[in-house]
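Batch job 17 of 40 flagged for manual review because the log was empty.
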Amino acid sequence: MSDRNHTPPTTRSKAFEVAPWSICEPQLALDRLAQTESVFALSNGHIGLRGNLDEGEPHALPGTYLNSLFELRPLPYAEAGYGYPESGQTIINVTNGKLIRLLVDDEPFDVRYGRVERHERVLNMREGTLTRTCRWVTPTGKTIEVDTTRLVSFTHRSIAAIRYEVRAVDAPVRLVLQSELVANESLPPASGDPRVSAILENPLEPEEHQAVGTSVLLIHRTRHSELRMAAVTEHHIDGPANLAHESQAFPDLGRVTITADLQPGERLRVIKYVAYGWSSRRSLPAIRDQVVAALTGAKRSGWEGLARSQQEYLDAFWERSDVEVTGDAEVQQAVRYALFSVLQAGARAERRPIAAKGLTGPGYDGHAFWDTESFILPVLTYTVPEAARDELVWRLRTLRVAQERATQLGLKGAAFPWRTIHGEECSAYWPAGTAAFHVNADIADAVIRYVDATGDSAFEAEVGLPLLVSTARLWRSLGHHDLHGNFRIDGVTGPDEYSAIVDNNVFTNLMAQRNLRGAADAVGRHVREAKALGADAEEAAGWRDAANTMYIPYDEDLAVHPQADGFTDHGQWDFENTPPETYPLLLHYPYFDLYRKQVVKQADLVLALYRRGDAFTDEQKTRNFAYYERITVRDSSLSACIQSIVAAEVGHLDLAYDYLGEAALVDLDDLAHNAGDGVHIASLAGTWLALVAGFGGMRDVGGMLTFRPQLPASLARLSFGLCWRGTTLRVTLTASEASYTARDGQTITLEHEGEEVVVSPGETEVRPISRRGEPAPPVQPAGRAPQRRGRDRDRES
């Protein structure tokens, strides 16, 4: 199952101070380690380091990840069936290069012993660093101060670095510092299946180890997926004249040991550089040379150079992409954290997937889902378009596997997986896995959006066209025309996982319609490239016919769209007598019961109102939203942001604001009580969507940016940046007016409340915002309303 299972809270747990540009833990809370390790994770899309303490212990879950480095594992079935995937893929904890252990007069530095007088950790989102300051008194009464700064470089893809300083405060101390590389760390059980646990225990087989000077190298290979990885570390040491060092290497351990005697006020400083690399094809010498070369480049830059380039990279990112919120300090912090997290997940993924947890934890086995194209890529497309491009190139690289899967299912074209790392389907549950064919249209939608936003015709011809053609062929073979001439798509599962194997899911049909039309248009623009794929005008005409006759169910009696055929005829779920402790429902009720009742796990038809808003009238949107609001329980973290967007569009601004808070704070307040296995990248991306598409009213259909903004009373001002065809557009909203500024690039044309607006570089166009009436407030299932974020809450003014 794809998750994002959670229970909307009645109370919230605060771990961090509220600040506009940082996430600060003012004192160490050992009972929150799992959450803080995820929130403080650093990544660049290639390397991911959980925010574990430098000394490694105590910890909740150690974690160092390389994008797409996984191990194969068996998928258990009570009864096998044709077409069931045979094996799964799980991201593994690779060689840990974060570890720096410290002994003070033979006493291990451990926050559980002695006395911690001060402990603070700060994630600085402007500088891209995690800093830690600790004042510690040893069990024998000597005081030291430890200051560390950690970064994973955005500009050096393979590099992480740590600056580690120790200062003696009130007495001479003898220090022993052990900087380590450790493979096959002991981890909590990853699965209740003993076969899976056995495979994931010690997944790395050693191939080579070296120790020279202040450098150590470890090379390993996974046992079953046969992927080779290397990690190498080097150190720059600065301290008193009496310091010494030595290095050792063993199959699963490399260690550089540094000793020094410090007088009060003296410091020992160590800069630790770590380089990572992996490949499924390259030889051991090639991998060794790759990481050594990366390390050489990092040492040449030095700590100051790495920190400076990190700052410059982020300065450019925030200049074009920052979101400013006036009126809610929590949301201001949260949306910047959301943007920073999405950037960390995708910036240097470079033709590898963006997982649901990014590289912050092992949740969902490190798999990528439809979340990537539907939630994460819209943010990247308008903020870091090259990262969005690279993710779609990864999908193209998996096209052959998707085509083989379609053939296995008796279909044409390509059937992309519900969950995967390498491209193969890894879902063992057919109804919510393979049957969720909408992932194929979600990929096509991301292609169309990227091309519209960038105007990159070369990408469309080389990458987009094969994806569009293959997915269009899937829909043409999966669906059929009925006796009335309607094109139907039967036996599928939409985004709502509390309904499965349904006919004519509205979201699926509407997204397939966009896919079919987009593919036909692309074939017309790239005739030569289409011919190489065997696609021509005749096949494109068939796609257009299917799109034009696509069946969209409608309940005339209720004047709403059923989520799928017959959905509004299902029995009602008894929300009034559902105990609060039985949410998420899937953990306490059989799917048999869920599938035949009107209860919605996550926005499905409501998601269609947003993604295909052009297919509904304003009145239909209002009625549909109200109908599904009363049966949507949000047992998925993917729901709140979409409900926020559509609530804002139909005029429920306060409700939209409530849902925004839930999406924004899912990890910072650990609303789902599961942030410990990694942050929710899609829900975080949804924070941006709720502000920009919700209150900003931005839509991107048909190659035109359109805006219908409206702010809730609690927000005095909202400003956000967008990249649109080489131009950086800054949109600033107040209660009464919207301003559109083109900071660079070319003149762009957009729409404000249906009026065409032309914005030239360096100029600002200002338009009034029309206030719209609010319809009757909708109701939610008993006990499932979002927590209010009204004026009675403490917020900045």
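Reviewer: the log was empty due to a logging misconfiguration, but the result itself is present. The domain at 41-279 is CATH 2.70.98.40 (Beta-galactosidase; Chain A, domain 5). Unflagging and moving on to job 18.
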